[in-house]
Amino acid sequence: MRIVLGVGGGIAAYKVASLLRLFTEAGHNVTVIPTEASTRFVGTATWEALSGNPVSNSVFDDVHQVNHVRLGHEADLIVIAPATADLLAKAATGQAGDLLTNTLLMARGPVLFAPAMHTEMWQHAATRANVETLRSRGAAVLEPASGRLTGADSGPGRLPEPEAIFDAAMALVQGQSDFQLPLAGRTVTISAGGTREPLDPVRFLGNRSSGKQGVALAVAARNAGATVRLLAAHMDVPPPAGVEVVPLETALQLREAALAAAADSDVVIMSAAVADFRPAAVSDTKIKKRDDRDDPVITLVRNPDILHELVELRNSAAPRGRQQLIVGFAAETGDGDGDVLAHARAKLQRKGCDLLVVNHVGTDKVFGQDTNSVVILARSGSEPQEASGTKTEVSAAIISRISDELNSVSPRA
To answer: Which of 328, 351, 333 minimizes the C-alpha distance to 343?
Structure first.
């Protein structure tokens, strides 16, 4: 596929290099047209090296090829990222002052704009009018992500992650009417990893969780357009780019972070492996092994049921109907009282969450592995859904199910 990638003059231009790499690695032939302003952020040499094609922003280069006409006619897809307020205005009013705006006027295929700018610029009436004009003419304009912007402020206006733009572009070319990212405009909080409960300054009670599934969920939610907050307990893998990370260690710290994060979350996914118990007392000094002393006795106390507390908080805040989706995870083993699914169904009933993702765990299953096999149970009583494969594939299935659940209820007030 022949793609024209237009690069606007915003600091987010550096992220477009990753988008270009995604296009080229998928086998597409990409011509990059940067605006003059964008070359102050990323030079033409970068675009030429990554695309393998010559780069220009002037209508007077290679005049014999009539590029200002040819590129728009030949392109199977045009993607503009970052689409600055200036570029949106020029496109909406049909200006043709450089090679990129000329190419947009000559476009015969689908066009996708990925906006990035400060919140006030995005929310300005002029920008909103320009966006509506472009959409009314058939162009696709993504909603920007929310989060930290260039300065100390934050809000809607971040460039969506390259993977999310790539997915939207491919969906647009394939003619999907719902090419818009399914979680765009949603805030998703995800807990990941395993909590650690200190015994003394050296030792702790922990578990085998690596955090791989939680990180994969964060990536899938991010790529679906959500603003993602990752509550990160101990993890063997780094957090993904493009998400807010809240580091923590213990179950009590996770509880505090989860309750705070839930206040502005559309979805809460509790995938972390949370310790059920913690030591009743924590020694200020290392517990030493001595021949003249008895073996130490460690008394455990229950940790709070964070998932159940989140459900109660949600229900009390929205007594007339669900306005937040809560997803729990159950790491189960069968025993004399029942199999894995029997225990999971009982847990779903106790917790009251909307979805429960069930793992059959063991010393060589799930924890630390790159693959997973889960069953998704719903409080609504719908048929259980199975998903298996890599943790990336399983996460995509879970996020897709969450999107379906969100679309099945009335939007938030």
So the answer is: 333
